[in-house]
Fold each of these.
Amino acid sequence: MIFLMIFIKTLAIVIGFSSALVNDIYTFLFLRDFRITKKERDVFDLLANVNLTCAFILAISFLFSFIYEIDFVKEDILIATAVILLIVLINELLFRRIVVPVLANFRLNSDYMDVEQVVVLRKVGLTLNGVSVISWIYLLLIFQFGLTNDFFVTGYILGDYMFISSVTILLMNFIYRTKKTGPNLNQENNAQQI
């Protein structure tokens, strides 16, 4: 039973991390033109479903481990995992319910959305996906090393996680500023109005 739980957790973490990484890469590639096509939205929906499913499977497997094998999962590990899984869930819901639908409906000639809102949503999308990747990496680290190492205490894990997530947010914003790609929306909107 323990080996099955370990296998399920490992599989969920690896697939969740992989889909978060692919989602991050696709966000960077798809948003070069400042909009999301129907096909791109379908890819984002698929990746979000995979991430949410993996997070759910991981949460259930940790819960079963905690219920049936109290010695196997320390309380600190369970708390840290729960917090990080909650962040993964919030990230996915924000990206899927706010960023993707608005950018999918945006067209260069639309009057209802200003350019600044598109730029902010694009930056938010990149940042959310960066934090999602870091979250899955931390879940992998917790699972690999936290079960056997007494140094892993909730405060250390979550403190390090918050620090690395903050660095990721700054890094994603720096990357966004240095790699601005896509059309100059101000010039195109001004040209359409003339």
Note: The chain has one domain: 2-188.
Amino acid sequence: MIAFRAPLNPAHPVLALRLTIIVLKNAWSFSHILATYRLIWSIYENKMTKTVELDSFDHALLREVQINNQTPARILAERVGLSQSAVLRRLRRLRSERIITADVSIVSPEILGVPVTVHVLVSIERGSRTYGEFSRRLQSRPEVKQASYVTGGADFVLHLQVESMAAYAAFAREVFHDDPNVSEYHTYIAMREVVGSTSKR
């Protein structure tokens, strides 16, 4: 008998229902079920342990800094209806509590020489070990800007930035074709960003 090492929690019935739906849709092996259970449980656990009370002013500030984190506190204060000192205190708290996890600059892919945006759906052979190995390979590739382990027909969704289609072909050969654990992948080339970090609204 194999026991799941997770504390009892009211979220378990919801977790079990979601996992059951996923299993019925995909006919997974037990190792895949176990890996997915642990992944979903870690998400629930993470949410429960990091719940922080945010009021309407916090939400307003977060909306503003997600658009432009270089906006002066004086301007933020006018926009959200607080004093400048209150804005600075709240921003310090939001950073110290890891609500704001990073302040970054988004650079144009064209300027960096990687103008081609590629999205890839990847399916790999079942087994928790192969998922871990594939994840580690992705982390070592600078072309991969984002990668998510997902439910549904594919196992991973990748967001890549490459300099050309030839560069992507080389990436696909090294990461997909040469990996016996990759069963299939589907490539989607972005023609234009509609909504995103660099799109104009």
Note: The beta strands are 116-124, 144-149, 156-162, 182-189.
